Amino acid sequence: MTVNHKKFFILGEEILPGKGAKLSMNVAKLHNQTQVQIPVIVERGKKDGPVLLLMAGLHGDELNGVEIVRRVIRNGWNKPNAGTIICLPVFNIFGFLNRQRALPDGRDLNRSFPGSKNGSLASQFAYQFMKDIAPLVDYVIDFHTGAAQRNNAAQVRCILKDPISMELAKVFAPPFIVHSGFIPKSIRESLIKAGRKVLLFEGGKSNSIEEGIIVTGLDGVNRILRHLQMRTFKEAAPTVNESVIVLSDKWLRSPISGMFQSQVVNGTFIEKDQIIGMVTDPFGRSEKKIKAPISGYIFCINESPVVYKGDAIFHLGFKDKDKAGKMVIGD
Ligand SMILES: [Zn+2]
Fold first, then answer.
1. Does 3.30.360.10 match the CATH number of domain 9-227?
2. 186 exposed, middle or buried (CB, 10 Å; 0-12, 13-18, 19+)?
3. If 0-12 CB within 10 Å is exposed, 13-18 middle and 19+ buried, where does residue 35 land?
4. How far is the CA of 86 from the centre of ligand 1 (A)?
5. Ligand 1 centroid vs 247 CA: distance in angstroms?
6. Which terminus, N or C, of the chain has the lesser number of Cβ atoms within 10 Å?
7. What is the pLDDT of residues 256-309, one digit of tens each?
8. pTM of this prediction?
9. Can you give the residue ranges of every domain in the chain?
10. For the structural domain made of 247-318, what CATH number should be given?
């Protein structure tokens, strides 16, 4: 899907071929009447081509994506030869300032789409985005991390049965490609319903900047930009193993309350009955070893050092559709 943009207007500004602009999307006012503005960085190539949106910080404490988009800009990768690249490095600017996932009213921006003009603060953010940015774009990569202490192995989530999304996910070539259906009121649902192709990247955990995840994200962007013929690179991203496609999943829960230590590397394959972690009591009485009940790929580890019985601690993924539960993944 290549849109021929003879004239390209965004947030009231015309961007001419070969030019760029640093713009602001106005979303709300603080109580002292200061306007809250979200920086939007746009670069248009000399040749026509698709419009790609790279966005992060929809959850304000998910920093790996913010760093990935920052480095894309810093490297000059956001200046295409063909098409247009829009970067939105920090969407939920309130959450970013407060180092929180949600907005000040506690609402999750990713459960507030498509939003409304006079709704909650989150709803107004969503509305402005759907009105001013979403209609202009063909492809979106939305960067996230695990929530709280959950550390996600680098993965792209998408609707696997959509052939274009699946092709793009394979081009991105993360260690894992995870099926994720529509989550009601998420940005992904609204964008896909509006005909946009969306990849959701997940990697690492909140409030962290993790180099391995950032390099994986940047390599993925590099491959996508070449694939969409938007720009060339002196150094192409390295060739990596084919992504593991996760079709079913199972959460392993802590058998007791206590202090938790993982004994496996995130993203690796584990065998049934392998010892994968330990939960201990702080008083030296017990050390409960955790055995894998089934073989599979560990693609998320809860890095909380203290857990209650029943807390989700390991997320196991399987290539086989019917190996375990139906995929329930919340972006
Ligand atoms: Zn997120």
1. no
2. buried
3. exposed
4. 19
5. 21
6. N
7. 999 999 999 999 999 999 999 999 999 999 999 999 999 999 999 999 999 999
8. 0.94
9. 9-227, 247-318
10. 2.40.50.100
